[in-house]
Amino acid sequence: EAQVTQNPRYLITVTGKKLTVTCSQNMNHEYMSWYRQDPGLGLRQIYYSMNVEVTDKGDVPEGYKVSRKEKRNFPLILESPSPNQTSLYFCASSTVSAQPGVGKNIQYFGAGTRLSVL
Amino acid sequence: AQSVAQPEDQVNVAEGNPLTVKCTYSVSGNPYLFWYVQYPNRGLQFLLKYITGDNLVKGSYGFEAEFNKSQTSFHLKKPSALVSDSALYFCAVRDGGSYIPTFGRGTSLIVHP
Q1: What is the C-alpha end-to-end distance of chain B, expressed in Å?
Q2: How far is Cα B9 from Cα B106, in angstroms, rounded to an integer?
Q3: pLDDT digits over A23-35, tens only?
Q4: Yes or no, beta carbons of B45 and A109 under 8 Å apart
Q5: Which residues on B lie below 8 Å from A23 (Cβ)?
Q6: Number of Cβ atoms within 10 Å of the Cβ of B103
Q7: Does A102 lie at the interface with B, CB-CB under 8 angstroms?
Q8: pLDDT tens, A49-83?
Q9: Distance (Å, rounded) from C-alpha B24 to C-alpha A40?
Q10: Buried b / exposed e along B59-70 (16+ C-beta atoms within 10 A)
Q11: Residue B67 contacts residue B57 (beta carbons within 8 Å)
Q12: I want to staple B10 with a disulfide (CB 3.0 to 4.6 A). Which of A88, A89, B15, B108 is the partner?
């Protein structure tokens, strides 16, 4: 089954304690990204990756790091979490294509990680 | 630069009535347009997309959307709403020359029995 898997689903932590949220996809997608979802603000992109070892900042990258050492994995790292990073986080993946074919360019999302930083 | 606007935070409709969720966009090139739905405690799910071709696009669960180039709109529609359609709906756009989509803020659809 094609899927994007995020772990953990729920996480409560304290300010300053480093954490990693994992993301893995089994569709051989080139493109992966991280979003945060906050009430009234919709989805905001944190970081994205076009392929292995190719990452770039999205709209709200401050306080986050990512890595793409393997095609299937794209972990999100919070080196020193702060309360303003309390949010719902989504990982997504898709093909990278200028072609309109069936299945192309569709984002597949993980189930989400709800993070609370105290 | 690309952007997308969903002018309504919430849309209320009675079950059995037609529904419309609005989306307008701005891109410098050819638009790739998408609708996604988010049910409570779930990730976003793809509904439909417009890349090229027929302006009326049909998608999952009986939804459709019409691409209107002159009005730069891509409104989501359904002829007869169901209570189970109640969810958060996101419109997204990307420029044909870019691989990075931009999402709207989302519209909460509430279908009353």
Answers
A1: 41
A2: 7
A3: 999 999 999 999 9
A4: yes
A5: none
A6: 21
A7: no
A8: 989 999 999 989 999 999 999 999 999 999 999 99
A9: 18
A10: beeebbbbbeee
A11: yes
A12: B108
